[in-house]
Amino acid sequence: MVQGGVLFVGPAPVTKKGRRALMGFSIETRARLSCLYAGAVWGLFWIPLRGLEEAGLHSLWITSVYFLVPAVLMLPILLLRWRNIHRGGLAFQITVLASGAALTFYSASIVLTDVVRALVLFYLMPIWSILLARAVLKERITPIRIAAMGMALIGMLTMFGLGVSFPVPQNAGDWLGLAAGFFWAITMVRIRIYEGAFASIDLTVGFFLWGLILSAGVALLLAPGHIPSFDQVRPALPVLLIFMLLLVIPGTYASLWGPKFLNPGVVGLLFMTEIVVGAISAALLAGEPFGMREAVGVVLIAGASLLEPIASLRARR
């Protein structure tokens, strides 16, 4: 959409009625909804990845192709806004580099260790976010955040059948999953620090570009003989394009806009809707198991994500 010569790109436009309803919420409420939405979108992350896997791509090149599509789609925005991005300087580049590194490490960890362990170790991220927010931003660690963190961890351990044993990193993939969560926590804290300095659309462009550079670098280093051909990628392109345009690009924008106005630890908890949506969608679309244990875990994780927003709403009332 173009207004006054400026290009705006983000989540899909809403109706006038929907816009009036959203404007009735505080900026914090809208930011929480944005993060919940972003987490839900990333919970569907596996669908186009599964399509690329079925097309025969090497596992390390899947993420590179995944990043390549939105990076190409957003090239016009890069050309229009390169002056703004350049003005962001080193601080901006460090922020988007951290975000790209987070997803690159996460994707690599899924290849090198069990998916369950990668997911659980990545979602220790809210702990790092809360500690970094305390150290850097001097934000309080409230009892309700501690309770939400406990609910989320119990939910994950229940859902993934890890019992009472805590996942301790044991191999390179585990450490990459842990590092991915830490780098995403750094990204959230830096976005909060530079709340008014970086436009979310610029962060979105940088996220995809750095994600492409880093994931392609890892793939070239570890699997140089498996560069995919266009004929391999072509069957998955329709689904990939639809997901990018309707979900991934808007979801990424939301995930980089909402954290500007929230405590980074709260952001980490809200993003855990990824686990909820991922588990339910995998059960519905891929026939993966979803029984009582998974249901209890989903309820606990969803409750942890919503605990602080509900408490905040009650306090305002």
TrEMBL record:
Major subcellular location class: membrane
Keyword Cell membrane in annotation: yes
Keyword GTP-binding included in the entry's annotation: no
GO terms under cellular component: plasma membrane
Localisation per UniProt entry: Cell membrane
Membrane topology: Multi-pass membrane protein
Domain EamA residues, every copy: 33-159, 172-306
InterPro entries on file: Diverse_Substrate_Transporter, EamA_dom, EmrE-like
Keyword line: Cell membrane, Membrane, Transmembrane, Transmembrane helix
Transmembrane segments: 29-47, 59-80, 92-112, 118-137, 144-166, 172-191, 203-223, 235-254, 266-286, 292-311
Pfam families: EamA
Name of the featured protein: EamA-like transporter family protein
